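Researcher: Structure prediction, please.
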Amino acid sequence: MSNLKNISILSFLAILALVHSDNVTETEESLKSEYPYTLIAVGPTNPKSYFCKVEIYNPENDSWSMFTEFKMNMHDEYTPFVSHGKLFIFGGKIGYEVFTDEVFAFDLVTKSSSYLAPMEQEKGIVGVAEIDGYIYVSGGMGANYTILDIVERYDPASNTWTEMAPMLTEKYYHAVDTWEGKMYVAGGVSVGFDDLNSLEIYDPKSNSWTEGTPMQIYRLRFPIVFWNNHLFALGGNWSIDGCPGERLDLSTQEWSNITNTMNKTVWTDAVVFNDKIIVSGREIKNYELNPKTNEFKKMNPKIISRSFAKSFVVPNTLVPDVQSLTVETTEESSKSDYPFTLIALGPSIPKSNSCILEAYNPETDSWSTFDKFQLNATDEYTAFVSNGKIFVFGGRIAIDECLDEVVAFDLATRKSSYLAPMGQKKKSAGVVEIDGYIYVSGGMGENFTVLDAVERYDPASNTWTVMAPMLKERYFHAVNTWEGKMYVAGGITEEDDNLNTLEIYDPHSNSWTTGTPMQFERYKFSIVFSDGSLFAIGGNWTLDDVPGERLDLNTQEWSNITNTIENSVWTSAVVFDKNIIIAGNMNNNYELNPKTNELRKLNPKKVLRSSPKSFLIPKTLVSDIEIN
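Model: Predicted structure follows.
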């Protein structure tokens, strides 16, 4: 990409030189219209999709239009790259937590696509750069959440791969770019999930790495970009509000801060375009950075919401006139491409040692049972789905007898097994997953003791680690994750007090902070993230049809939402294809539109449950099952 960036700068300077040589005064608009390149944006969409949707930028009116779309096997955490008039897709996820070694190429001219020679390892979240016609793929996360230092070089001419010298440190979520024939790799996350501020430089002529001047700030999920003998690092730190960018003077090797007023500074990308740095923010946001003045300007948004947007400079000759471009999303790509379906599970009524599984058919708005497996627990266990498996943590076998057992049911093989037990017997705990680890928080233990303990399970090693406890003990609380952190809301304390508190756990620092408390005390309820907000739904016996509420993550203010859920305790919620599906008590189901706050009732589930839980799983795990 750097070659195109450098070409773009030279082309712009050439235009300026021509203007000055003829002593003609050109307006900024005429310079824009003569600029021989444009931008395209690509990357995993929200919601996830097997269709890769490409947008094109019109600099004359600061607007984006749909350009094209194509279908592939990957749906998330792939890395796109543009070279030789083709859009390459490297690795990524093809299932819920399954990485691939596949390489996909889409020709921007012919609109044809093909699969190329695969990489040596299955992986996602890699770094990609081009030097002298070769494409280098660095690091990433592999099978079993292994963090990689490997570097592979792809030769488009021969469609072959060669393993090169590995990086000095294994990493993923790192930033890469090239300058004067060398590859620069900055930041990322390493083993132990440590954030990095390091800078490594690769010389392809000697196939060797050297250390560069480290950044001032630890960064991940961010871009680096070169302009006028400076290296810019933008965004990429969870813990710093409006994380400042910084620039490295390549002559003095000194870093200095630059103004940064971006919201959501992770998952960003940057590219030099028309002598400015265009920053693609998370979701649909865009910014323009003037590298001469360090001034940021907000631009008009993109059309497609993306978890990670990548932008590339391409010649105008590769794309049509954006003024006449009209590409509509097909019904197939907007509906049938959604790669997940829903399953429901949880303690049934009457109580049973069988965990009965149901699958949802969104086309008919109906549920069907498709399997079951045996447990020792009959109630108040906590279920969770990860990497194609259903995990069941703890629960109770009598009113005062809890379990430390962990059961795993493999959705592919339909077999169950017992895993390493938790450190404490407990029921009604909270469970989330961050970076491949499963965190179990709080709950009620033996002798009705309410817990503040947090345990972390490593599926790769089948081991448990005790983490920093919550700020307040609780059970019947709601948990979810957002941008690499765990949010814990509400619940009931040792003193039997209902809570409206919000606590936030950062796994990188193993520490807790206090968030903005909810308006209502809640327990046996759910929280879910969607549309830039945190939704809290149900969970209060004393209020008739307790209203839900949503926390604006930018303003940190809560507001009420319409909620007419019957039996509003014991609810579970999950984002499913743009809307929030709420599994209510007994067999009730609802669909909430997060943009309009409108709630509509769905058809009921088959199984009555006291505490239903719903999860997204790949369609492929249930498509071949005879559902009854």
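Model: The longest helix spans residues 2-21.
Researcher: Thanks, that helps.
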